[in-house]
Design a protein that fits this description.
Length: about 120
């Protein structure tokens, strides 16, 4: 099993930036960031495959950047120009396979505990 621990969340003003980190026991072929906002379903934010290919939700494209450090087994999410609608619990996730689309939570098998991001 993959162990995942997120960090870096916090409270920021609109327009600010945060960088989330996910410390993993190891990085699987596909890693992703998801978020769950109050009253909304879980949303795929960004994902990266081992070959470096990335995908982003339209709502964050151009503002967020997903990256990873294979040597450190760490996944990152750089969030710039944050908006109040970005407020959510953010989760790091790892997929054993690639059967599902990259931003579908059904395709991920392992999840971190989440880190809260609040934008006001």
């Amino acid at each position: 099993d993959v162990q995942l621990v997120e960090s870096g969340g916090g409270s920021v003003q609109a327009g600010g930036s945060l960088r989330l980190s996910c410390a993993a026991s190891y990085l699987t072929y596909r890693m992703g960031w998801f978020r769950q906002a109050p009253g909304k379903e879980r949303e795929g934010v960004a994902a990266v495959d081992s070959d470096g290919s990335t995908v982003y939700a339209d709502s964050v494209s151009g503002r967020f950047t997903i990256s990873k450090d294979d040597a450190k087994n760490t996944l990152y999410l750089q969030m710039n120009n944050l908006k109040p609608e970005d407020t959510a619990m953010y989760y790091c996730a790892a997929a054993r396979g690639t059967s599902w689309t990259r931003l579908s939570h059904y395709g991920y098998n392992y999840w971190g505990q989440g880190t809260q991001v609040t934008v006001s």
